[in-house]
Specification:
Elements: H1 2-21, H2 29-55, H3 62-75, H4 87-128, E1 129-131, E2 139-141, E3 148-151, E4 158-162, H5 163-168, H6 171-187, H7 189-202, H8 207-228, H9 234-247, E5 257-258, H10 264-272, H11 280-302
Parallel strand pairs: 2-4
Antiparallel strand pairs: 1-2, 3-4, 3-5
Length: 305
């Protein structure tokens, strides 16, 4: 079982590397995002499970049963087939439990940091932003620079634009940008990106982790573009992105998602010259495969072999 879980973790890492180089995900951003999520979850469970399965192999009952049996052995003062004299298995057990604790802790810390940053920025917005009758439901900051972003929240979210944006964009372009930000809010893209941000904080020197974060960030923007084009002309959104780039858009604050957040020219080209969407059967097949991949880790943890 340890070999199977190790092979699964390796396959997920290789799959993430290959997926970060591919361009077909641009044809189906939502399905590709779901695939990225399944790769991340499965890699984490398989990596931890491989270490624990090797360490607990003497119990012969799989990871979950082995952990219970090991706990019973510890309570009964170490009696059982696993002893600390078996140094490789002891190290594997310690490494597996430590990796699990690190992955969970980093995600919790990243969540707490993001929540604190948003709370501070929301308090700042209460002091410096205002409402504008021309853009109802949007917070306007009196700043000459170009800025447009959404600030997600648990109960409610804010869409923020600068006064410079209102003077920079035409009415149709502004409508397109606001539709893009509304898509971020509606689909909770901040929650999608958070685990990849946490993993990048943990392993900033690993290229595949950086590429995964960049790829998911771009797919999130493309998914919001696709949602926005239902309510506006795609070319207006493209010209708005170009105007942001030419004006030198201000970076979105920590915890927020900006309109021109990732690889603007790739998004502009996709909006102006959209290629064929991934066939529906391929999208459904990708989602089905992602679901099966996501459940493979937990199933292998409870498999008694």
């Amino acid at each position: 079982m340890a070999a199977v879980l190790a092979a699964l973790a390796t396959a997920c890492a290789v799959g993430a590397w290959r997926l970060s180089l591919a361009r077909w995900p641009w044809r189906a951003p939502r399905a590709a995002i779901f695939f990225w999520q399944s790769l991340g979850v499965t890699w984490g469970l398989a990596s931890v499970g491989a270490l624990l399965a090797f360490a607990l192999a003497p119990y012969g009952g799989g990871v979950v049963y082995g952990l219970g049996a090991f706990a019973d052995a510890v309570v009964s003062f170490g009696h059982g087939p696993f002893t600390l004299a078996d140094l490789p298995r002891a190290l594997a057990l310690a490494a597996g439990l430590m990796l699990l604790a690190v992955l969970v802790s980093v995600l919790l810390v990243a969540t707490a940091r993001t929540v604190r940053a948003r709370r501070r920025h929301r308090a700042l917005l209460a002091l410096i932003s205002r409402e504008d009758p021309g853009v109802p439901g949007v917070r306007v900051v009196d700043h000459p620079g170009a800025a447009a972003y959404c600030l997600p929240g648990i109960m409610s979210s804010d869409v923020v634009v600068s006064a410079g944006t209102l003077s920079l964009l035409s009415a149709d372009e502004l409508k397109a940008v606001l539709a893009h930000e509304a898509a971020h809010v509606r689909e909770r893209h901040d929650l999608v990106l958070l685990p990849f941000t946490a993993l990048r904080w943990l392993l900033p020197w690993v290229g595949v982790v950086r590429d995964a974060h960049s790829s998911v960030a771009l797919l999130i923007e493309m998914a919001a573009d696709d949602r926005a084009r239902r309510y506006c002309c795609p070319r207006r959104l493209a010209t708005a992105l170009l105007r942001f780039g030419a004006a030198g858009q201000l970076p979105a604050p920590s915890g927020a998602l900006g309109a021109a957040g990732a690889q603007v020219m790739a998004r502009v080209d996709r909006l102006v010259r959209p290629g064929p969407a991934l066939p529906r059967r391929c999208r459904y097949g990708l989602v089905t495969f992602s679901m099966l991949l996501s459940v493979s880790g937990p199933l292998l943890w409870i498999y008694p072999g």
